[in-house]
User: Which sequence fits this backbone?
């Protein structure tokens, strides 16, 4: 059984996918003012998980082009949605076995450089909250673009998919 913090990350990922559901590919290319495009957001979250859970731990980059395309500090871009979803799936598939094995000791260990000095547990928090930030951004973009029937609140599966349980 995964650690409760990992369950929360996985639930958040499912809510992120719910926010993306039904996004037309052409709308994922839109960049409204200073907001990111939805395609960029998808790639950016794949980039962060790859950076934290693969590159910093093992040096592995399963989708190396993410660094230049959607990494922090890179120029704005509007990558297509489907390739970014495939990149995200590739990264999370590579990451999930490690997440499944995390225990309390691992949560307290530090991620190796480069990057901020953070524990694995703090990093899982950071990634989870980063998803929630971008869920709001995705839904705001979709609302401005006139998409109907968007999710309005955290899904009803929270208590079954990521219930409170003591660590």
Assistant:
């Amino acid at each position: 059984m995964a650690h409760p913090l990992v369950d929360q990350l996985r639930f958040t990922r499912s809510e992120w996918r719910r926010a993306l559901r039904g996004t037309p590919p052409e709308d994922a290319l839109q960049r409204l003012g200073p907001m990111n495009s939805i395609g960029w957001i998808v790639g950016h979250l794949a980039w962060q998980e790859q950076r934290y859970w693969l590159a910093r731990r093992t040096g592995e980059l399963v989708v190396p082009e993410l660094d230049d395309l959607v990494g922090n500090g890179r120029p704005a871009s509007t990558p297509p949605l489907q390739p970014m979803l495939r990149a995200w799936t590739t990264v999370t598939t590579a990451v999930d076995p490690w997440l499944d094995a995390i225990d309390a000791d691992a949560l307290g260990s530090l991620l190796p450089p480069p990057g901020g000095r953070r524990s694995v547990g703090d990093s899982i928090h950071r990634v989870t909250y980063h998803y929630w930030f971008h869920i709001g951004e995705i839904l705001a973009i979709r609302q401005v673009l006139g998409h109907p029937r968007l999710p309005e609140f955290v899904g009803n599966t929270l208590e079954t998919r990521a219930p409170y349980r003591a660590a």
Q: What stands out?
A: The CA atoms of residues 18 and 113 lie 33 Å apart. Residues 120-144 form the longest helix (25 residues).
